[in-house]
Amino acid sequence: MEPSRVAFLSVLSNTLVVALKIIVAIITGSVAVLSEAIHTTLDLAASLIAFFSVRISGRPADKIHPYGHGKVENISGTVETLLIYAAGIWIIYESVKKLIQPEPIQLPALGVMVMLAGAAVNFFVSRLIDRTAERSHSVAMKSNAFHLLTDVYTSLGVAVSLLLAALTGWSVLDPMIGIVLACFIMFEATKLMRASFPPLLDAHLSDQEENKIMSIIETYKKEYIEFHNFRTRRSGPEEYIEFHLVVPSHLEIDAVEELSDQIEESIKREIPRAQILIHAEPEYERKHSPKKKDF
């Protein structure tokens, strides 16, 4: 299934779950259910952001955006993370109010059933989105899948809290569970921020990824002198790799181009979406140019 269609499925599923949770929150008066309704509403917003960002980031490079639109996904992931933080703060606020003035929960069984149903729907959709995100290397969809998965955990937690509150009569369990879940989703959101925000500042790829790329280049070391000015960055689902390759001055242009093509093809076998720029320079030019830092 295409990424845009999967993202749209997330929008539909979240819309249904949000409607159910809001209705049940009003009927039961549960702050935990209300917290889940707020959480899922933000999931819906995140799904909408992911849906549009996937469509935009998939556009080819143009005159205004010569490096493509990939960073739209990183912006999307960052915004989604901020929404999670906002949800966590709001849930804690509502939970504290309920702790100060506890109220009995009405029809807890209805709340439990809706929470379980919402968890089942979001688990299925999150797995589908996560698999699609892996195939398309989409940051926005990966973020959205995580949103839905946290909703599964929190929905199950709310179902348990409603059941315990009904069995024990301890209404304070409802807001206490709400606070615990808020802290959980805010902690997990930090992981998303680490994945989505650094590419906006053109941070390099992970050390593991860079070591893999350099190892590939070094398999051709008998055919070149050295390489330097090695730089990488990520933009949405694509990786950008650039380096200078010093070649023997006696090599013909065709031979240099063939070597560059071979290195590029080898890298792309490991990183299919990589955009690679190799600056070939002859050994003579290297010797007479200002000294540069080498690898």
Short description:
The protein has 295 residues and is mostly helical.
Average of the residue pLDDT scores:
79
Q: How are helices and strands ordered from N to C?
A: HHHHHHHEEHEH
CATH homologous superfamily label of the largest domain? Cation efflux protein transmembrane domain
The CATH architecture of the largest domain comes to: Up-down Bundle
Record field, number of beta strands:
3
Q: So what's the oligomer here?
A: single chain
The class by helix and strand makeup works out as mainly alpha
Shape: elongated
Counted up, domains total: 2
In the predicted model, the low-confidence regions spanning at least 5 consecutive residues are 291-295
Strand content: 5-15%
What's the story with the biggest beta sheet? 3 strands, mixed
Question: Which strand order does the major sheet show?
Answer: 1-2-3
CATH topology of the largest domain: Alpha-lytic protease prodomain-like
Number of helices: 9
Helicity, as a percent range: 55-70%
Radius of gyration: 25 Å
CATH class of the largest domain: Mainly Alpha
List the helices and strands and how they pair.
Layout (H helix, E strand, L loop, with lengths): L2 H26 L2 H27 L13 H30 L7 H29 L2 H30 L4 H24 L10 H12 L7 E10 L2 E10 L5 H18 L4 E8 H5 L8
Parallel strand pairs: 2-3
Antiparallel strand pairs: 1-2
Helix pairs in contact: 1-2, 1-4, 2-3, 2-5, 2-6, 3-5, 3-6, 4-5, 5-6
Task: Provide a descriptive summary of the structure in words.
By secondary structure, this protein is mainly alpha-helical. The protein has two domains: 3-199, Cation efflux protein transmembrane domain (Alpha-lytic protease prodomain-like, Up-down Bundle); 207-287, Cation efflux protein, cytoplasmic domain (Alpha-Beta Plaits), CATH 3.30.70.1350. 68% of the residues lie in helices and 9% in strands. It has nine helices and three strands, in the order αααααααββαβα. The protein has helices spanning 3-28, 31-57, 71-100, 108-136, 139-168, 173-196, 207-218, 253-270, 283-287, and strands spanning 226-235, 238-247, 275-282. Strands 1-2-3 form a three-stranded mixed sheet. A hairpin with a 2-residue loop joins strand 1 and strand 2 (238-247). The longest helix has 30 residues, at 71-100. The two termini are 42 Å apart.
